[in-house]
From TrEMBL:
Gene Ontology BP annotations: transmembrane transport
GO CC entries: plasma membrane
Topological type in the membrane: Multi-pass membrane protein
Record's subcellular location: Cell membrane
Keywords associated with the record: Cell membrane, Membrane, Transmembrane, Transmembrane helix, Transport
Protein name: C4-dicarboxylate ABC transporter
Main location: membrane
Length: 260
């Protein structure tokens, strides 16, 4: 058990350091080295911003293993700080993504599954506040423990509602893309992790509210996750075996007088 905890601490520290660095470096490079056109924003821009939210969720699991006192409280509040960092950064980027959809139309077919990436910070933030509320009683004074528990529900329920709205929108866009000829691409894996965060978020809300409806929501999302994972996994294996995923891209045809 002690060895497992040591490995967990090392991996958590390394992952958190890399995640925080990416959350700063990637936006910095976008500003100083790149000039993204107005119509190029995509949900992929959210990827470097989600990592601190994941650390906020996982850090909650380490809080009870620290000695009572300031160590526990410091880690708990650091996790809340990473929650806020990721959440507010997402609120900056998400309007750019929706503006791109409204003003420039749907994403290219192969990128359409990335719309599910928006669910990542939504579900993961709900997961984080619920897990942090679970460990707050052993880390902070009584007035704050009840406040953290209330915040988990008051924040999580509205955000889960928006996540379900976005899930419906993203699913409709995927259906449209399939009808237009969308084939398999590695972007299909965007159907997995983001939905998984909504599963854990809904399960956390069910735990704190005791509502059966939220339990069934978590079950329904989990079924969706299993189906999506199986589909992405099967198509990936098929593509590797057939060589379709490992083949070099076909170079563009050279321009001729007839094709100019």
């Amino acid at each position: 058990a002690r060895a497992a905890l040591a490995v967990d601490v090392v991996l958590f520290a390394a992952g958190t350091a890399v995640g925080l660095a990416a959350a700063v470096v990637v936006p910095f490079l976008m500003v100083v080295r790149h000039r993204p056109a107005p119509g190029t924003a995509s949900p992929v821009w959210l990827l470097p911003l989600v990592a601190p939210m994941v650390s906020a969720s996982q850090g909650a699991l380490l809080v009870p293993h620290l000695g009572s006192g300031q160590g526990r409280e410091a880690l708990l509040l650091a996790c809340y700080a990473m929650f806020g960092l990721s959440l507010l950064a997402t609120l900056v980027v998400l309007p750019l993504v929706f503006s791109r959809l409204v003003h420039h139309g749907p994403l290219p077919l192969a990128l359409t599954p990335t719309l599910f990436l928006v669910l990542g910070p939504l579900g993961q933030s709900t997961t984080a506040v619920n897990q942090l509320a679970d460990v707050a009683p052993g880390a902070v004074a009584a007035p704050y423990t009840s406040a953290f528990g209330a915040f988990a529900v008051l924040y999580g329920v509205p955000v889960m509602g928006f996540a379900l709205l976005w899930l419906a929108l993203a699913a409709a866009m995927v259906v449209r893309a399939v009808r237009d000829g969308m084939g398999f691409a590695m972007t299909w894996w965007a159907f997995t992790f983001p939905v998984g965060t909504c599963v854990t978020g809904a399960a956390g809300l069910a735990r704190h509210t005791g509502l059966d409806a939220l339990t069934w929501l978590a079950v329904a999302l989990y079924v969706f996750l299993v189906v999506a994972w199986a589909a992405a996994g099967a198509r990936t294996v098929r593509g590797v075996v057939s060589g379709a995923l490992t083949a070099a891209p076909v170079p563009p045809r050279p321009a001729t007088a007839r094709t100019r």
